[in-house]
Amino acid sequence: MNKIFYILSITALSLISLQHSNAALCPTLEPGDLFKIPDNPAVYLINDDLNRLYFPTSEVFHSWYDGFENIIEIPPECTNNYPLPSEAPYAVNYRPGSRLVKLVISPDVFVIEHGNKLRRINSENIAEELYGNNWKTLVRDVDDSFWPNYTDRGDDINQSIPHDGMFVKTPGNNKVYYVENRELIQVDGEQVEDIRMIGHSIFYKLTLREGTIGRQKAFEKPEQHDRNQQSATPAIPTDSASSTPAVPAVPVTSTPATPAIPNSGGGGGAAPATPATPAVSATTTPAIPENTPSSTPTPNDSTGPWITSLSISPATGQAGLIVTFTVTAEDPTGMGNLIFDIRYPNGYYLRPNCNFEGATTGYCTFSETIDHGIQPTIFGDYIIETIRAVDNLDNISTYYPNGTVTNSIQATHNLVLPSIAISQKAP
User: Region Disordered: what ranges (predicted)?
Assistant: First the structure.
């Protein structure tokens, strides 16, 4: 009997010793770490809850990471220290702005935004203006089993307005911008991939934010679990909504749904994407040039266009008021867009714009229904907060109602930027 008890005690101590030995072999992983186990190609990401998320394909992995240099290898018995999540998302999805996705069995095409959010594109024209002529080559079929990992849905995209998560640039300009909270912020000198070439008229539908942003901002937190906040004041588009239904994309062969597999050499990375073909710049209010655009811009010019005259009338009226804007301006390098930032009484923004199409001097005139036909009508003051003028070198001068100007040939102006009052009919 004593011999049996001795054997059982030794066995129990051996098991306890083995458990302590295994614990000692298990490294402590932190949120954001990547790991794999020996002789298995699958790579996992640790989220904020210390759960493991898988990568459905190697292409998904490379939309976030350049290579496999920072992957931690752990023993198989340590895997259960980092269980799968109890609810979706169970996997890492494509980085926002890097690809378009669709269900295998459906023709609807979606963009990806922060927070694992999908937004449906409502026309091929919008897809082309945002993602280029080759947008169909960016569409990836997603199997039903992986679709629930996209846990959030946003409004349909009815306008050609860059969405959060995109890297964009304009023709003839090497500057790259990142879209965040419906604002454009310049990316510093680091190299980025999946840059979309968009027209100037589309670029300036968003506000430019001062300063720069590092490339790593777009690549942080691939699990996207806490990046699903929307802008509190969405911009009201200036062009009319398209009613064209989504058209099935040309069939694109998706990367097989297999785990991300490291290169045999341990290095490597995703090849840079070919920039999309520039969208055709379109505007409903072209400038009328008074002379031929300069063909050789002054390379050392650093100031934006100078507005020489401005007329905005009428400044008061009732629902459906049509306001006419007339502007003359000049810049030796040639001018691009001029954008009016108009804040609605409820905080929304209207950003009508006109394009000088490279003229060094000229004028543009257009008319706009200032309340944009919103029902019910938003009564109150529609405030012109700024007027931004852009030249061919992407220098921007900004005009304020208080008579000040930034980044132009003078620091003050005598233009009148009126508030436009929309009132109800008298009883």
Answer: 219-307
